[in-house]
Fold DNA 3'-5' helicase.
Amino acid sequence: MEEYIAELNDAQRAPVLQIDGPMIVIAGAGSGKTRVLTYRIAYLMHKGVDSFNILSLTFTNKAAREMKKRIASIVGPSEAKNLWMGTFHSIFAKILRFEADKLGYPSNFTIYDTQDSQRLIASIIKEMGLDKDIYKYKQVYSRISSYKNSLITVKAYFQNADLVEADAMAKRPRMGEIYEHYVDRCFKAGAMDFDDLLLKTNELLNRFPEVLAKYQNRFRYILVDEYQDTNHSQYLIVRALSDKFQNICVVGDDAQSIYAFRGANINNILNFQKDYDNVQQYRLEQNYRSTKNIVEAANSIIDKNKTKLDKVVWTANNDGPKIIVNRLITDGDEGRFVASSIFENQMQHQLGNGKFAILYRTNAQSRAIEDALRKRDIKYRIYGGLSFYQRKEIKDVLAYLRLVINPKDEEALKRVINYPARGIGGTTVDKLVVAANHYDRSIFEVIENLDRINLKINSGTKTRLENFITMIKSFQVTNETSDAFILAEVVAKKTGLLQELKKDGTPEGIARIENIEELLNGIRDFVEGQKEVADVRGSLAEFLEDVALATDLDQDTGDDDRVALMTIHLAKGLEFPYVYIVGMEEDLFPSGMSMNTRSELEEERRLFYVALTRAEKQAYLTYTQSRYRWGKLVDAEPSRFIEEIDEQYLEYMTPVDGYRYKPLIDSDIFGEVDKSKLRLKKPVTGAPPLAHKPTEEQLRKLRKLRPVTDGTTGENTTNLFDGDLIAGIAVEHMRFGRGKILKIEGVGQDRKAEILFEKGGMKKLLLRFAKLKII
Ligand code: ATP
Ligand code: MG
């Protein structure tokens, strides 16, 4: 253990070695917060705490898996096995299954994903005869979600005059009724939505003191990563569970709180001291992740926020290259620039794809980037957007499987009752829904009892409905005797799903069949995995739970080498050597929807801080002059965030006389460009902002670690318009070594040199990437 403790600095060691009591570690990006949690768990176990008594809550399940792996490498795999580690949703879904009966739910309850919830809300709006342009189902869904996360139940909603009034003012006076119907329908379908997993856990812990006591005694040590992004509902759960032993360790960074729009409450971190007695506060200041340029640039940004805790972040790492800023004409050019830059970096530094990440504000931005990466044959993976399990064909198979487990599942039933087509029309389904509401039963039960109710359904349809039910019941029998893989195979075949896609015959249809095969492979892996752990039949219910809670990051098996594309929100906690932040434009980032108030703008700025601090070695910021938004080509302005970075950390790719930027024209890579579209920006002037205002002591520390430079590093590297590079002179290249320039050609971004290297032979290099040293 000592050797592992030695892998921590003094500041990190302190919270690891403090076994008992409440503690909070507040620290900037890359300072080792997650590392502290990981080592702390290992240390607790080393000190004899049973792994069974430790609960650790992470932001993604992938993060939990990684932590577990690291802990296993320290304490041994069998020790680490029993640790309760995962996201709030996955941990409490498991607990709710144990305790479901207390809340009147079946233990096989379904978890509705966002799409299921939204579909249900849309159909409720329709059934109520409301105007769908006023009651937009997505908006209604997020209202309901925020009520739930603030623990506002239907009853509490109606008792809260302010809320009722606010919805009435927003011309949605029937919001509360929709909420009520939605909750009823979920309950009747034996389903919980994502927010219920937290809300119901709170209900469970509040209403049943013996259940609370049980889990308090069980989770004697609780650890929470990314505490700044917990919402009220999560906060209350942590609070309740840790109340008895108060062995609670939370880590976070107020500067990285980026989920306020989803109810995260930054006050949870700010008020932690008030919630527990004798809270130990720890601070970490040294960043191990990034270069000085990146750390200090990030400091200079976050300094613009008024609401923040004072923090120092410094690093002993190298200065590293400056942050490269580039302006492109269109999003297509932006994609091509990023792809070619990745390619150049790979060539220059011998790097695989996995070292690169491209981050954007909104998922829609990925398309142009993807096109460019594909053209260059660079392998990539998109996180977020439509995940594998959200594809239509996959959801269709899963809907059948869900029905097998929980026949009351209304959304699953509606999805597949007539898919593949079996002559059960929309009107019939509507009648079934009305009857189900009337008798307060599930649709499945209504169909089972068709003989006893008069539904005006013709006998042909009735037979078809009964056949459907019989089919599902036959699957249930299969499920009792076989494992999930066999069942899934039977379902794919017997329902006619595969035949339907085969009939289709288009490339898309074939791709869908392949996806279903992939799903079956996934189920087989799951079943095998379960058999390894214990001699049990891989249970379908558990597989479905894993699927329902899988976040997009969780699908990353990590074994293939791809460029990562994702929104900044998803990138929290991750790190990559090279990071491209694209779409640095006003209205896009900061988002046009988040510029109304100072606090919204500050959240966007924190988001930018998160983005930049993902980079270890080099960051790029790109923006375009015009971009398609909502189907229209609109002019774009560079993001204010670029200007907010202290200028000394930036390098503009194409500075031109008196103007700070010149648009990039690279006809080689980008094809012909319509020059009339180019518009030059006025130079930005003014003193560079102070990076931060350190105290005397901090200054001392900083000085000790960072030699004072006058900005000229002494490195005589070329920049783009360096006229010194001419044919005949001797140069040195980082990788190819010494050589002689034979020829210079092209202008601006295009400028290339033909160099004869002593060892590497002839090379043609783009000067803007080559970083040549004159010798
Ligand atoms: P974020 O705020 O982005 O979540 P974090 O504070 O959780 O960052 P970590 O991810 O734990 O930071 O650490 C950042 C990087 O620095 C990781 O690669 C980690 O392995 C490394 N690191 C942390 N502490 C040390 C240390 N004492 N010695 C060497 N490397 C370290
Ligand atoms: Mg972290």
Observations:
- The CA atoms of residues 68 and 417 lie 42 Å apart.
